[in-house]
Amino acid sequence: MIPKIPLASWIESIVDWMSSSLSGLFKVISVVIQEVVGFFSGLFMLPHPLLFIAILGVLAFLVGRLPLTLFTVIGFLLVDNLGYWSQSMDTLGLVITSGLISILVGVPVGIWLAYSKTAARIITPLLDFMQTMPAFVYLLPAVTFFSLGVVPGVIASVIFAIPPTIRLTHLGIKQVSSELVEAADAFGSTSAQKLFKVQLPLALPTVMSGINQTIMLSLSMVVIASMIGAQGIGAEVYRAVTQLQIGKGFEAGLAVVVLAIVLDRFTQNLFMPGRKKTSRVSTKQKAWITAAATLLVLVAGFSQYFTGSTTSAGGNNGAANAVGKEVNYQIIGIDPGAGIMKSTAKAIKDYNLSDWNLIEGSGAAMTATLDKAIKNEQPIIITGWTPHWMFNKYDLKYLEDPKKSFGDAEEIHTIARKGLKEDHPVAYEFLKRFKWTSDEMGEMMIAIQDGTSPEQAAKDYAEKHADQIDEWTKGLTPVNGDAFKLSYVAWDSEIASTNLLKYVMENKLGYKVNALQVEAGPMWTGVASGDVDASPAAWLPLTHADYWERYKDQVEDLGANMTGVRTGLVVPKYMTDVNSIEDLETGASTSGSSSEPAANANVGDEVNHRIIGIDPGAGIMKTTASAIEKYGLTNWNLVEGSGAAMTATLDKAYKNKEPIIITGWTPHWMFNQYDLKYLEDPDKVYGDAEEIHTIARKGLKEDHPVAYEFLSRFKWTSDEMGEMMIAIQDGTSPEQAAKDYAEKHKDQIDEWTKGLTPVNGDTFRLGYVAWDSEIASTNLLKYVMENNLGYKVNALQVEAGPMWTGVASGDVDASPAAWLPLTHADYWAKYKDQLDDLGANMTGVKTGLVVPAYMDVKSIADLKDK
């Protein structure tokens, strides 16, 4: 007999080698994909949902007809109404990222295949392999290379979705008429001209069909990708399916349908010329609309650089107004609408500088212009403010302002939303104490300008000025909110335990917990590799025996968090005459079913010799197969499916009092919902009672001692878990169910957390304007609050208006970037009653016009014609 080819071990060896040898490459790919997905998701979440829907509606009207517009608007309004907006935007970001990668890689490869028969012979079988291999197979190597999360989801989606783009690009080019190609050759076309002017334009409909299929296949992967931690609408579908929540599953699935139809119709109408006849706008009109829109954007963007570019009458004033001539009567400003720009416009009016122009732009453009002028010792006038790194880097001076157009010295205030003192007293007190000087801030700003990241600059400053940091935080109780990741298998028991852990760790111990819903393999792999901190879902010694054997030296077993759990075959209790697996061949199913079987009825016949199981490959399925063999059940079949399918079959049979045999385990909500019993197992195929263990990555005890101790103490009973599971099954969200349980069992929670120092890592949001001073102060606040006080800080970079509005509305907790009383005077007048002023965190700041010191100009008055 020919020995089995050790293909599995070869593949594992290759994967292990790639994981160790190419880790650097995988890390780079991971970072790039993570950033791209985050960019798109953030972009889609940036506008208000209604505004985004309006934009999509306009686009739909331009590329299609009224029906597409109505479907797009109504569909996304429904998604928003159902509460799946953020998840859908995350999914859209994942789909677009995987689609872009597939297109950027697939189209060139397809062109290559069209030009190279050798490449086509080699790559075509690989495409067959990629398309026919079950998509689930891609998940584990993706996790091995890229850990858990959205990145392996994108990678798996690309592998699964890229073949149509390659195939149809290849096919489209090959189908171009040979006569046309020969004609192009006859006219002396180069290969590039032939490709881009003949073959690709003619092949475009076919190529775009491939791209359309790729996008649809990418979207079809969202549920599968959710199994390895890729969040989004797929996770909601997957969670609903595993919990037999038909309504929620339909809701989440409907969101996927909306995304799919909209993406399909958009790509068809935009890129598939054969279908454009149905569009309200012709191809030529679309081209004009696109050109006009592009021109409008370009004009709007570049108009600032031409404002005031011509020399006005003031340019003929001779030597008496040499300064104006030298700088072309221009004052280089920053963002239009900024407070300092309003003050400068006022100064131009106050000092009657009628010939002068204030050039709008940005802070970066202004400092770039300044740097160039400084290096060439050319005259320049800019709007300036202190603190700013340019005063540390260059020798600058302020022009005197006798008319006080720029007012007196300003103050940078820290403002906070109403109720902050009550909600976050530690943060409130810290922010009140936060005060430093422009020189101190300058240290950070110049470091950032020299290339140091803001995070590193903040850390360096805090380490250098430890005494100052200690003074700011003296007497404050640290909240120390370290981020913490939990992974879990989407079983009802683990959904309950994980959500309870998440609630307690966030609300009692202060961690910011990220709970990743994955399959068992990725769960163990993630903990073993250190990508996940812990999991409370390790079923030992039987169900997860294979994983334990493989990873036992790479994880720490913190002990059982629940005892007395069990697996086995389960039947309804009304099957009174079936009490043992041995009875499956000879016993009667019931003595009281509606069908009233004969006393000697064979239970195998009544259930069609079927045992309803769950997912193929699950530990209980392997044990059940062993039980079938051990007990000689030669005519029986173990039906593979899923936990949800099993419980749905059970529910139907139970309602009709029909006989049924299923695989079961405790804890499970079905034991609370239905009156069930276990079949005895005299041969102990299913072993004795199992234990659910909490496992943790190596080093957790040293990195997170409080969490480690808490997880070691975490133990509860199946009845206690059942309270949560049945609540979840009845429609309560896992988060609410965990909260309800914790409030009901306060003594138990207190016992788990007794004597542990809370880390209390509340999420804290800071808003700031993207000025160098505020980048410095905000990043310093962020570092201190995270490293000394334990908050998980989200620093939001916005414009001044949204910053004030966010604080006033409570969407942002605080901002250290309020310039008062002048620069932000309008915002202060509008919002002063809707927020708290915690006082100045810096005094002596100033705004005004700035020139290099070598310019012999002392006053704004000197700029006036004389």
UniProtKB/TrEMBL annotation:
It is a multi-pass membrane protein. It is found in: Cell membrane; Membrane. Coiled coil: none annotated. Gene3D superfamilies: Dipeptide-binding Protein, Domain 3, Glycine betaine-binding periplasmic protein, domain 2, MetI-like. One of its GO terms (biological process) is choline transport. It comes from the Bacteria. GO terms for cellular component: ATP-binding cassette (ABC) transporter complex. Keywords: Cell membrane, Membrane, Transmembrane, Transmembrane helix, Transport. It holds the Pfam family BPD_transp_1. Residues 88-267 form the ABC transmembrane type-1 domain. One of its GO terms (molecular function) is carnitine transmembrane transporter activity. PROSITE patterns: ABC_TM1 (PS50928). The chain crosses the membrane at residues 52-79, 91-115, 135-162, 215-234, 246-266, 287-306. PANTHER family: GLYCINE BETAINE/PROLINE BETAINE TRANSPORT SYSTEM PERMEASE PROTEIN PROW, GLYCINE BETAINE_PROLINE BETAINE TRANSPORT SYSTEM PERMEASE PROTEIN PROW. In the N-terminal section; belongs to the binding-protein-dependent transport system permease family. In the C-terminal section; belongs to the OsmX family. This is Glycine betaine/proline transport system substrate-binding protein. It comes from Paenibacillus polysaccharolyticus.
